[in-house]
Amino acid sequence: MGQSTSSCSVAPSSTAATTTTSAASTKCQLHPSPPPATAPRKKRKPSHLPPATAAAADHTLSLPDECLATVFSKLGCHDRNSCSLVSKRWSSVDSASRHRLVLLSPAEISPSLPSLLSRFTSLTVLSLKCSRKSPSIDNDSFAQISRFLNSLQKIKLKGCTHISDDGLVAFSANRPSKLSKVSFASCGFGAKGINSMLTNCSIKDLTLKRLRKLDTRTSHLEYPDSSVGAGKLLVRLCVKDLHNAGVFTPLLSSCSKSLKTLIVCRSSGNWDGVLEESFGGGGGITSVMEIQFESVQLGDQGLTSISTSCPDLQALYLSRTTDCTDDGLSAIAGKCKKLRKLHIDAWTRFGIRTIGDDGVLSIAQKSSHLQEIVLMGVPISVQTLNALASNCRSLERMALCNTDTLGDAELAFVAAKFLPLKKLCIKNCPVSELGIAAVGAGCPNLVKLKVKRCRGISAASIGRLKLRRRLLVVSVDEDTPMAFDSGAEEEERQRGAERRRGRDGNPNHHGLLPGNASGTTANAICTSMSALFLKSKFENALHLGRGRRGERRHDSSISNDDIIFQ
Length: 566
Fold this sequence. Notes:
Strand order of the largest sheet: 1-2-3-4-5-6-7-8-9-10-11-12-13-14-15
Shape: globular
Number of helices: 23
Strand content: 5-15%
Structural class: alpha/beta
């Protein structure tokens, strides 16, 4: 073997080539290659299964179309679209069982829209969306929808700026009998097209958002005098980001007997006059059961009109209304005896509090059917809490937020008196561990507690509450110090032992009291310089927190500088 190696190294070029070929042949022998093409290959055995058995290997063929449609309904959008391309049967089953479709509708899809609509003939909900920066489908394309989709029940348009009043008129001319819900947002039509939809379709639910052509005072939303029956009138009206309240007065007057829900958000105009004229012109008594007003010009005059015209009112939401006071809320309490839900956000955009404790007290004294109350920025007192506990025996959900009058004493009163309470939310209130401990000892029917931005509550108190009430669901947001806690019971016991040693006067190795410096667990990876910087900042925050602990109860707006590390 050594001689052959030597001969290969000194051989001439031809000999070297021969040696290389020989070496390559040796490699081929170690790793045999497939036989040459001339050699006969072994043929595969044919399948021993009969044709019927081979076809039965696809188990979906034995599923009825109804079962396959049920499977498709459990899939997500992309998976379902992929399944529709598997076979003709799957495509037909998907098309027949597809009831909801969200479609991007730029102008480029107009040629293919008829074939797309003819494929999904069972649609009940159709949503067309387009960017306002690009042209959308036009009137002719939109009018075809009502011809192809006879089962359509809800249609939603967003950003379709190239659909005008003529497009809505052509769409409604086909009179889709099952269409009952309509939502228009950021589109290019006005009152003429919407009135045609109200006339020719049985619209029960109408939502209008950011329709700039409705801001003009030359036209109004209204029904014709005698062409629409009582069964085709509106039941729900939602208005958002519009700037002409007077355009809705004739519409509200026409459907005052059928309207159940009225929602108005961020829409300018004199809504006091609209409510007084529309509800008063409809005969005085309406069937409205839910009213929501958010960031609108509404005062006691509007609340008085609601109280006299809506005796069946069950839900009232007032958020940042400009001129509502305790007098208007007292008028609601005096005549709306069926009130079940009350949401009040008393702060306006200028930081002025409009509704106080007296208005809530009148509600508590006269609304015995109240089941849910949410108060934000309302300075509630123990007297009002006592009235709620005594008169509202069905109160199950309560949220008290952004008020400096809710402390440990008030929270202990809630825990002792509100026995039917099931859900409680405390947000941005000066409560501490004593209040949380009182909640754990009281409220026997409580199933969920939500705590947000209450910096006087420590992680240990939440841990003890969870140990005491294991079935209670406690929700804590990231703005509170206990969000750094890992939640382990062993760590909670260790922190409790450190606090007890701190009360005995034993300082830790940093020179800080253990109960304050190591009350929460946070893991950080930093350099030595960063560690010294963080240590100095935390020490300053600790001393500032001690000095401001007595002042924090009297400050309604708690800032990040007031955080006490426990």
